[in-house]
Design goal:
Blueprint (H helix, E strand, L loop, with lengths): L1 H40 L5 H11 L12 H4 L11 E3 L11 E3 H16 L6 E3 L4 H12 L10 H4 L3 H8 L16 E4 L10 H13 L5 E2 L18 E4 H14 L13 H4 L2 H6 L8
Antiparallel strand pairs: 1-2, 3-4, 4-6, 5-6
Length: about 290
């Protein structure tokens, strides 16, 4: 009888332990789920942080189509307030107020030191330009406060389509620039004559031979190799691991209804700027 009582006590004790363990496991699961929900609800909501969510989720097959925002693609954000961007150190650039996506910046630094090792000096003269920045560039040329090819276009070219075509040789319309994405940089000089000098030729030839090793591509190569678009820009280089994604997103999401809010925006559709400029790039960069 004593043995039976002992067995009953052991059984009861074991049952209690099992129940306690089950309760603890349920409690842990609920706490974990609550933490995940809280963490998701508190994710940063600026334009490009959404893109970084894509990078983390891609292995779980989350569609990037639901992640990258039109506002980001069209430059309607402030890179100085976006934690996915970083300030470019003056060591690598000509100004102290330039920003790049962190991944682009890391890749450029690697390329910078590789070039330096080979006796080539690279420096960034323009990086991320958001919608407001690009609008300022565009409208200065559109309204004649900045001369283009030695002319005041506001007075010398009355036809808005022709005026836009002249500006589009080297300047993008706001909401259409690759510089919105934090992936593209202008290097050393935006004067084509520089790349005809001894130094400029060395820089350009080094980039052509080596930039791809660090993820960079030359989107606006010779127009003989593209059907339309901007003039050749030997200074413009793009970080392809990200810009290729953004270009695909731009093609799928951005419409002419998004290309508005600046002088001359009505010419965007007439000139088919998405097809003829945004998408008309070096085939190696697509």
């Amino acid at each position: 009888m004593t043995a039976i009582n002992i067995e009953m006590k052991i059984f009861k004790s074991s049952t209690i332990l099992i129940v306690i363990l089950l309760i603890l496991m349920v409690a842990y699961y609920l706490i974990l789920q609550n933490y995940k929900a809280h963490d998701t609800n508190n994710m940063p909501t600026d334009a490009h942080n959404d893109t970084l969510v894509h990078k983390k989720q891609i292995n779980n097959k989350v569609s990037i189509d639901t992640i990258v925002s039109v506002d980001f693609l069209t430059g309607k954000f402030n890179p100085a307030k976006d934690t996915s961007f970083t300030l470019v150190d003056p060591e690598y650039g000509g100004r102290s107020d330039m920003y790049l996506l962190k991944d682009t910046y890391k890749a450029f630094i690697k390329m910078f030191y590789a070039a330096q090792h080979d006796g080539v000096k690279l420096y960034i003269i323009s990086a991320t330009r958001n919608f407001v920045y690009q609008k300022s560039i565009w409208e200065q040329k559109w309204n004649g406060s900045k001369l283009v090819e030695g002319k005041n276009l506001a007075t010398s070219v009355k036809d808005p389509v022709k005026r836009a075509e002249i500006i589009l040789k080297y300047s993008s319309m706001p909401a259409t620039s690759r510089h919105h994405w934090g992936t593209d940089v202008d290097l050393n000089s935006m004067d084509d004559k520089y790349f005809s000098t001894t130094e400029g030729k060395i820089v350009y030839n080094w980039l052509c031979a080596n930039a791809s090793k660090y993820g960079f591509c030359h989107p606006f190569n010779s127009k003989n190799e593209r059907s339309s678009g901007y003039e050749e820009e030997k200074w413009h280089w793009s970080y392809m691991p990200l810009s290729r994604i953004f270009l695909n997103q731009y093609k799928n999401k951005v419409t002419y209804a998004n290309i508005t809010g600046f002088s001359g925006c009505e010419t965007a559709l007439k000139l088919e700027v998405i097809k003829n400029y945004v998408l008309s790039i070096n085939s190696e960069c697509k």
